[in-house]
Design a protein that fits this description.
Layout (H helix, E strand, L loop, with lengths): L26 E5 L2 H11 L2 E3 L10 E4 L5 E5 L13 H15 L3 E10 L10 E9 L9 H6 L2 E2 L4 H7 L2 E7 L7 H9 L2 E5 L2 H11 L3 E10 L6 H27 L9
Parallel strand pairs: 1-4, 1-5, 5-10, 6-8, 8-9
Antiparallel strand pairs: 2-3, 3-4, 5-9, 6-7, 6-10
Helix pairs in contact: 1-7, 2-6
Length: about 260
């Protein structure tokens, strides 16, 4: 199936991106889980801000002292007490955070499954080339492309090379496991990582015309032989530690640069 690519303002593949002159002075980090977020909060020296996004939103926001870095994680589900993972909380809290903080760059970060066939190993950190949905199957002309919803990300090849990060398509869905049809779509789009939020973050970021970068650490191997939930729980702390090391370096690298400087 031929799928049209919708290009966000300020993003592109490894070639020169659109709106390359955009300067990055405010960065918004979006994270699903507390265990993923808090190590980064500590490493970046962020302070909780309870005024930027008002209740009843359950997301939790932290701000740097100079006001240039904002981290929002999606908080706990009020009905179950579990972390608010998945595309629905991601869309809602991305909208609220982008509207309130008005960043120059959004970074969707956290953990993900990785494909061994695309070079992924536990603890690796990937930068996304694009995001797609692998579980929105709408077999109607026009809606098929909408369902996949492919959106390009800030690929940042210069940054990837300088920081030693891997690269590939990021595929999102609302289940930790996968169906055979999900796998077919992920393989079709050459997915390197699989997670549960980035495609929604991309869709909302595109509404605001805000460039998006995705930075994901690998907790489990999608095309491996171990159950995803077991590998995820075993490796979550190690992947969060990897993010704690990489994400501050990414933020430092991009801050003050123009989008074109990442290419």
């Amino acid at each position: 199936m031929e799928v049209d690519t919708i290009v966000q303002d300020g993003v592109g593949e490894d070639g020169p991106p659109a709106h390359a002159e955009r300067r990055i002075d405010r960065v918004l980090l979006l994270v699903a889980m507390e265990a993923e977020a808090l190590p980064m909060v500590e490493r970046l020296g962020l302070v909780k801000d309870e005024t930027l996004i008002a209740p009843p939103a359950s997301c939790v926001t932290y701000i740097s002292q100079d006001g240039r870095i904002c981290l929002t994680y999606y908080g706990k589900c009020p009905n179950t007490g579990m972390c608010s993972v998945g595309t629905v909380p991601a869309a809602l809290y991305t909208y609220l955070a982008v509207q309130a903080f008005k960043p120059d760059l959004v970074i969707s970060t956290g953990t993900a499954g990785g494909f061994r066939a695309r070079g992924a190993a536990i603890g690796d950190v990937f930068v996304a080339s694009a995001t797609v949905n692998h579980d929105r199957r709408i077999a109607i002309p026009g809606f098929d492309a909408y369902g996949i919803g492919k959106l390009q990300c800030v690929a940042a090849p210069r940054m990837r090379k300088d920081l030693g990060l891997k690269f590939g398509c990021c595929s999102s869905g609302n289940s930790l496991d996968w169906h055979d049809t999900d796998m077919k779509l992920m393989l079709e789009h050459e997915a390197a990582v699989k997670e549960m939020e980035a495609a929604s973050v991309a869709w909302v970021s595109s509404m605001f015309g805000t460039p998006l970068m995705c930075v994901k650490a690998i907790t489990d191997i999608v095309d491996g032989d171990q159950p995803a939930h077991e590998e995820f729980l075993t490796n979550l702390a190690a992947a969060a530690e990897a993010m704690q090391g990489v994400v501050p370096r990414v933020v430092t690298y991009v801050m003050g640069k123009q989008i074109k400087d990442l290419y």
